[in-house]
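Thread title: Can someone regenerate the structure for this chain?

I was given the following input by a collaborator and told the matching structure tokens would be attached. They weren't. Posting the sequence so someone can regenerate them.
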Amino acid sequence: MTDAEIEHENATIARAYKDLLQVSYRTLTEDDKKLIRKAFEIAVDAHKDQRRKSGEAYIFHPIAVARLVAQEIGLDATCIAAALLHDVVEDCPRYDINDIRELFGETVALIVEGLTKISSMSKDMEDVSLQAENFRKMLLTLNDDVRVIIIKIADRLHNMQTMDSMRPDKQIKIASETLYIYAPLAHRIGLYNIKNELEDLSLKYTEPDVYFDILNKIKDSKEGQDEYIREFNELIKKSLDREGLHYTIKGRPKSIFSIRRKMMKQGVSFDEVYDKFAVRIIYKSDTANEKFLAWKIYSIVTDHFRPNPIRLRDWISSPKSTGYEALHITVMGPKGRWVEVQIRSERMNEIAEKGYAAHYKYKQDTEKEDSLDSWVAKLQEALESNETNAVDFVEQFKLNLYSKEIYVFTPKGDLKSLPKDATPLDFAFNIHTEVGMRTRGAKVNGKLVPLSYKLHSGDQVDILTSDSAKPNSNWLDYATTAKARGKIKSALKEDKKLIGEEGKEILRRKLKQLKINLDEKSINDLVHYFKLKTSLDLFYRIGIGAIDNTMLKAFAASRSNALVSFFKNKINRRANVSKEDLEKEEVFAKYDLLVFGKEEEKLDYKLSNCCNPIPGDQVFGFITVNEGIKVHKKNCPNAVSLQSNYAYRIIQAKWIDSSQQEYSAQLTLSGIDNLGIVNQITKIISSNMHVNIKSMSFETDDGLFSGKLNVIVKNNSMLNKLVANLKKINGIDKVSRV
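Best answer:
Regenerated them for you:
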């Protein structure tokens, strides 16, 4: 770099630092500014020789993270300093954690140490168990100090914002990881704006075509949206002004990711998504009158526009466990369009925008436990079991982070928040672990219900207990929350161990009668013979009688005749292998459709059943443990989990030829039941397009029809053309691929 370039860069760094002080959500004292200045100087010194992949000075990254922490999240000077220093200990050998402790005090040092631990975890992850275990350890830092995770989320957001210069495979891995764990965490801590941006940026790298298509359509419709909000505003402004309310009305477009999710879930196009934006009414109020004014505004809005009675959400009377408060209604607005209206006080809006920081700014000195405090306290229970499989744990934890909530009552009338689709078992474990363990049955609204019953908001639940009751394996089918499932699994494992210990002694006695010693070799032989995974599985099956004397005698006989068995197996294996190879050779000689990796190699593969890819779909290969390469669509429901947890097993894949093979695809149709419509459908499919129909079924109901078609196509473009032609038939409303 030239002297002029260095001078320009230094001036830009100084300007970024000044901006950081000016945009802080909190009022900074002189001591705060001194602390931030000192952290800034140490960070500049530590990173002076470092550059990011984009070529810019590394110091811009910690400044940007600190800015997000200060402005978007609204944390204090301690956190701003920690954000500036978050990479110092990891990246610069001149500074260790003791130096940070000496210079900045215990709190900053603890936060920086937590962030350093998380960063070191993410380096060189070679297998899924390590990756999942590291996620678990990262979540454990929530118990130490929730600010560690919040700064880590800001760090991840800035990395996502500046990821263009990375390799495509790295982009997909980081984006999937973000979607898999960081976006749900941001949602759970109440950082809704950051959650939306993380999801949108993840979509930008995992499905760029979809992302830019929706983004461009949103831009094209922005002018019409602004005009619509002005029209909506004008219709209710006089009524609101007449009541002497101080308020602002804003329009907020839904995130690209949420629009995409609606399109996928409802099987509709962008134009058919009716609530692509929401109207937000933010009013001034003291705490005492907040609820009264919210319902007053609700009354005014519904005087002008007809509300959808099943779309009322009252999170003022019962705030979400994240601390979110608002009144949501969906009304029939101007031009006959449904509009979501969100009613919030300025305090509620700040909590929704800033999450944790505003939550504590407005926290009252009352005895009522804060919802975020109680949630963080509950984490210890979810994280404490070391026996839980790390991958299962992360999956369960993620589900609980993102799940929608229901509100149910105890017999005494206390309100409890549970994830949507929770069962009486989840409720029992939510009350207390011992109540869960001793559950015998449940009453909902005074009536006995099965333990698999799905609870609904407003239910009153009474758990029936018994000292003799204990968990059984069926309970895992009924429980949905991480806490309940974790406790049930631990109890079942404990039972299995006790039965296994008894089984081991039984096995020792029975083998003695067969003149076989119970040693490591005989145990391994038995595990292999009965096709089990572990010695505990063997002992458990002996204990419950699943492996009896006859089966053990057969094992003993096979050992004594081992030589004959050896040759038999060898001959059988050779016969089987050659037969399979012949079949594979026949298949792959005819159909070289997919190539893998940068070298575009032709490898054996299987198409996954979860998404049924066909030629023309964007796909990737996943190297399984036992079944070779499985091919998934890039928008497969399991894609994010696989790309996040098993990034090292992902292999690039693309179709190179689709003229030799035919694939099955299922379509659903719905519309108005016109005379001869089925004839038109079959004519277009069979005659005009020469596509074979594998099966078809249609149902009519009061003038409407719905149908399912299984068709045989050669590629994706043929299927898309078929869908487009079917949509042209008079009376057909929707056609979508399953």
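Confidence is low (pLDDT under 50) at residues 123-129, 364-368, 577-592.
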